[in-house]
Design a protein that fits this description.
Chain lengths: 113, 111
C-alpha cells in the first residue's frame, strides 16, 4: 500500500456544524501533515505530527483541531468554521521529518456556508 | 525568509519539450522537489533532487539544479496532453520539516 487516503472527498458544512476530516496511510511513515490549499494557490502548511506528537502548528485558528490517534491515522476536527475556510485540505505523510519526500492524499474539498 | 518563485504559465505543443523554472532563496535546503497537481486532485510527487547534485534524470523528466544561482528546472521530454497540470517546485527548511512551495506553473499542452 503506497498511498495516502482521505475521507470524505467533499464536505459541505454550516458555520455551526462540527465535522472531522480523516487521513490514513499504511506505509509505516512516522510524520503526517495537514495543508490548506485555496484555489490557484500553493498548499500552506497547517500542522505537522512527528511520531504521533504535534511538532508544528503554523498559528492555525483553534477552530481547527488536529488529532493523531495512532501512527497511521490523522484527523482534523472542524468547529465554527468561517466561509473563508472553504478550501482543499490535503493530508501528507513522509517516512520521517528531516527532508524526506512527502506523499499527498487526494484532498477533501471543504465548503463552509 | 524562504521564498520560492515560478512563472505562472507555460504553453507547449504535444511532442515538444517543456521546461519549467523555479528560483528559491534558502541555500540551506537539503532537498528540492517537483510536484504535479491535476484539476481537483492532490499533489503527486514527480521527483526530487538532493542539494549536492546537479542533475537527475527519470524517464522523460530531467531536473537541473544550479545551486550557485539557486535555480531549479524541470524538463519534460516529448510532452503529452496528459502532462497538462499545475507543477509546483518546493524546498524544505533547514530542519527538513516544512515544505515551502512556489506559486505553481500551469502547463498547457496543445494537440
Amino acid at each position: 500500500d503506497t498511498e495516502v487516503t482521505q475521507t470524505p472527498k467533499h464536505l459541505v458544512m454550516g458555520m455551526t456544524n462540527k465535522k472531522s476530516l480523516k487521513c490514513e496511510q499504511h506505509m509505516g511513515h512516522r510524520a503526517m501533515y495537514w495543508y490548506k490549499q485555496k484555489a490557484k494557490k500553493p498548499p500552506e502548511l497547517m500542522f505537522v505530527y512527528s511520531y504521533e506528537k504535534l511538532s508544528i502548528n503554523e498559528s492555525v485558528p483553534s477552530r481547527f483541531s488536529p488529532e493523531c490517534p495512532n501512527s497511521s491515522l490523522l484527523n482534523l476536527h472542524l468547529h465554527a468554521l468561517q466561509p473563508e475556510d472553504s478550501a482543499l485540505y490535503l493530508c501528507a505523510s513522509s517516512p520521517g521529518t528531516g527532508g524526506r519526500e512527502q506523499f499527498f492524499g487526494p484532498g477533501t474539498r471543504l465548503t463552509v456556508l | 525568509g524562504e521564498d520560492v518563485e515560478q512563472s505562472l504559465f507555460l504553453s507547449v505543443r504535444e511532442g515538444d519539450s517543456s521546461v519549467i523554472n523555479c528560483t528559491y532563496t534558502d541555500s540551506s535546503s537539503t532537498y528540492l522537489y517537483w510536484y504535479k497537481q491535476e484539476p481537483g486532485a492532490g499533489l503527486q510527487l514527480l521527483t526530487y533532487i538532493f542539494s549536492n547534485m546537479d542533475m537527475k534524470q527519470d524517464q522523460r523528466l530531467t531536473v537541473l539544479l544550479n545551486k550557485k544561482d539557486k535555480h531549479l528546472s524541470l524538463r519534460i521530454a516529448d510532452t503529452q496532453t496528459g502532462d497538462s497540470a499545475i507543477y509546483f517546485c518546493a524546498e524544505n527548511d533547514n530542519a527538513g520539516n516544512m515544505l515551502t512551495f512556489g506559486g505553481g506553473t500551469r502547463l498547457m499542452v496543445k494537440p
